[in-house]
Amino acid sequence: MKKLIAFFVVSLGMQQTLAQPATFNESILTIPQAVLIDADNSVYYRNVQLNDNGDGTLSVVGGEPQNLVYVDTVQVLIMESFPVQVSLSVSGNLSVPCVELLPAAVSRKDNTFTVVLAETVLGPTESCIAVLEPFSMTVSLDVLGLAAGTYTVNVNGVEAEFTLAMDNVGL
Q1: Which of 5, 11, 14, 32 has its Cβ near the most Cβ atoms within 10 Å?
Q2: CA-based angle 12:100:91, to the nearest 5?
Q3: Cα(28)–Cα(51) distance, integer angstroms
Q4: Residue 31 and residue 62 in one domain
Q5: Per-residue model confidence (pLDDT) at position 121
Q6: Domain-embedded: residue 99
Q7: One-letter-per-residue 3-state SS of the chain
Q8: Are 9 and 100 in contact (CB under 8 A)?
Q9: What is the pLDDT of residues 93-138, one digit of tens each?
Q10: What pLDDT shows up at residue 144?
Q11: What pTM was estimated for this model as a whole?
């Protein structure tokens, strides 16, 4: 079964603040970013276009696939708080220094979190030196309300695990 995750981006801190709403114009819904997750692989898209079929359904009519980044390591960080907060420290490489890391797409099914990381694509007239560009980032996981147990995290094929010793419910 495939699952499409559409999300909107708001960057904080030293980065630009950017909120990209989905738009509906002339029967076409355009979503700025979306990730298709299935059992075999994940695909990150920008500018996904969905056509209103007039019967309550939508058909995909366009989208720009983005390259997934290479992930070297995933480290789970569990904050000593209650409720518990969990984040990931992820490091890897962009394909070239002239692309940018796109926002992480995070999904959970049962006891498995899937995180998809992608990079922007060079334009047809752009060129860049072909060397890997290291990156590191932190990704927060929404663990509020989760039951005690062991959870798996998969970030672009690299897996890690963490265990919640008790149910993670708020006060």
Answers
A1: 32
A2: 85
A3: 5
A4: yes
A5: 92
A6: yes
A7: CCEEEEECCCCCCCCCCCCCCCEEECCEEEEEEEEEECCCCEEEEEEEEEEECCCCCEEEEEEEEEEECEEEEEEEEEECCCCCEEEEEEEEEECCCCCCECCCEEEEECCEEEEECEECCCCCCCCCCCCCEEEEEEEEECCCCCCCEEEEEEECCEEEEEEECCCCCCC
A8: no
A9: 999 999 999 999 999 999 999 999 999 998 888 899 989 999 999 9
A10: 95
A11: 0.81
pLDDT at 8: 40
Q: 74-93 burial, b if ≥16 CB within 10 A, otherwise e? A: bebeeeeeebbbbebebebe
Question: Which residue numbers in the chain have pLDDT < 70?
Answer: 1-19, 170-171
pLDDT score at 171 = 61
Query: Per the domain annotation, does 34 fall within a domain?
Result: yes
**Domain final position from 34, 50, 66:** 66
Tell me: do 123 and 40 sit in the same domain. Answer: no
Number of domains the chain contains: 2
Domain residues for the domain of 61 are 3-66
Cα Rg of the chain (Å, integer): 18
